[in-house]
Amino acid sequence: MFKIIACAALLLPVLLACEKDMKSSFEPGVYKGSFKRTGPGYPGSESSSVVLNFDGHLFSGSSSQPFFPAIGTGKYMLLNDNIIFENESAFTANFDWSLILDESFSKNYSGYSIVLIKGHGDMVLYHDVYTLKKQ
After folding, report:
1. Based on the structure, what is the number of domains in the chain?
2. I want to staple 52 with a disulfide (CB 3.0 to 4.6 A). Which of 11, 61, 67, 100 is the partner?
3. For the CA atoms of the chain, what is the radius of gyration?
4. pLDDT digits (tens, 9 = 90+) for 59-79
């Protein structure tokens, strides 16, 4: 029994360090990069430069092209491998509202870079992809 307790005591700091590293993989701050919509259900090939600012649980941002994407401002939260946006901006009706940064995106990290991906359509006809680097 003592061996089990000793092993658990030795492994506990390692497990806590791993948990700490996992939580810190996303750091709030300013991220710059690109946005692109891709997939068989979307014939376009344009992209735009974007800036996203994550401050606490709030986000804001801008795009080099009007409404491609429409970023605005709002709240976000991290949930497992996803980031969930709640956009609080008021937008006009003169563009495709599926381009608003809102709802759940999968997130992938690599060093100081993050890729956010959201599929659209029941059979995922196209994806919105944000490729960002922390500044």
Report:
1. 1
2. 61
3. 19
4. 999 999 999 999 999 999 999
